[in-house]
Amino acid sequence: MAETLLDHKSVQFEFAKKSFLSFIEGKDYLLPYLKPEKTPLLLMDLEGIKGRYIELKYHFPNFNVYYAVKANDHERIIRALAELGAGFEVASTEELNKVLSVGVSPNRIISSNPVKPPEFIEYAYKKGVDRFAVDSFTEVDKVSASASRAKVYVRIVVPNEGSDWPLSKKFGVDLDTALDILEYAREKRLIPYGITFHVGSQCNNFRNWFIGIKTAAELWEKAKQRGLRLQMLNIGGGIPVRYSYEALSIEDIAYYVKGLLQKFFPILPYELQMEPGRGIVGDQGIMVCRVIGKAKRGEDLWLYIDTGVFNGLAEALGGIRYAFYLDREGELKEWTIGGVSCDSMDVVARNVALPEPEVGDFLYILSAGAYTTVYAAPFNGFPTPEVVFP
Q: What are the φ/ψ torsions at residue 288 (nearest 5 degrees)?
């Protein structure tokens, strides 16, 4: 019996089409912005963002949710989440000022960047922010010098396998070193407050949460044996969204994480924290751009658009594979998507299944709500995307 082979181009394009239609379904307020006069344009759904935060709070009821401002620092997003009661994770003076400017109290702000400029620590502490992540003795010294009674939480290293944007080994320490850092913080008259880890951005591997929580529990017990009374466990970010494939759901991750906490922390920490960024805004935005050229080079078909990796799609360089939708019918072909700049690195994606486009067609890049405008620069003189909230 002959096997029926799946047409991978059709599967890819239909998935993108389904994602596009799902994004705009029942949202008439988005429709006028799908064919704008000026592109590129980042179309953000503020109601969807608020809905995603509410979904997180529903499935993680015992967690304080601190939105990672780095994912998308637009004032409208910060204000909307602040009105819902969210906390915020910041890494710089500029991020902190954006959050404070909408009236957020400092006690709803944390800083989990393990290596911070000394002037930021001093400024944040003077503004009332008193919770800082550390992962080195040097960082403890810096915090102690500028924030004498701050609460510090140590970052442990966990695997990032299965994450589309792994965090390599830039941050985090092993269990024994983490314990020594917490003891050193106490010696420096800081408050050893808790433990944090990060499973990697866009994580679709349950095992990373398993190792993170299990290791944190071991460290928690060792700290207790040394007279350290920790209060907080922070599970970082990593909540994935749909790109060119389905992702783990918030509900499934929450069910798994709560089971792990029940297993490894018979008595829950006084405070549980999480820091979603991409998980709140990632699939709540569409990049609307136009086709500006096409060519055949050898056997490869090239499609050129009016944005690129330097102007808003930098994550394409690091492994994120966006879904692309073009409102045309016809034979599907595989295209390489080239960006607007004259830099040869400016390649957004390869092997993208699309029907034959024409110059001037609108191309929709899905799940572009996170790490687009915050990475963007007007390289080569080309503009960063205009951001629209209908």
A: -100, 120
